Amino acid sequence: MAPPDRSTRARRSVKTGIAAEWLAIALLTLKGYRILSRRFGGKGGEIDLIARRGACIVFVEVKARAAIDDAALAITPDKIRLMTRRINDWRSRNAWAQGHVLRADAVFVGQRRWPRHVENVFPLDVQ
Questions:
Q1: CATH number, domain with residue 88
Q2: pTM of the full predicted structure?
Q3: What digits encode the pLDDT tens for the residues 15-32?
Q4: Structurally, how many domains does the chain consist of?
């Protein structure tokens, strides 16, 4: 049997990503976060979820892999750089958030496992 073609893999990846985002939303909502935005940004990178709990605003990267520990390895220096750029874009458009605690979190999703929420997955270098 031939391996799936590129478009089949891409569609499967998108479906997996959307399902992982919904699991992350469920987890964060149960923890008391309110989702402010999904997929903020666009070409050149995006923030999967932006959520708020009290005075804390979190920018959440959602990563899904077969093994949950592999998901953590998917946050690369390039991803951090792109996310930081998008966080700065968001901050420039949302002056009301000035004075809030800002944090970069991640939700890692593995097969047949409850998602894992990790706070402060990388330090923010926001301007």
A1: 3.40.1350.10
A2: 0.87
A3: 878 889 999 999 999 999
A4: 1
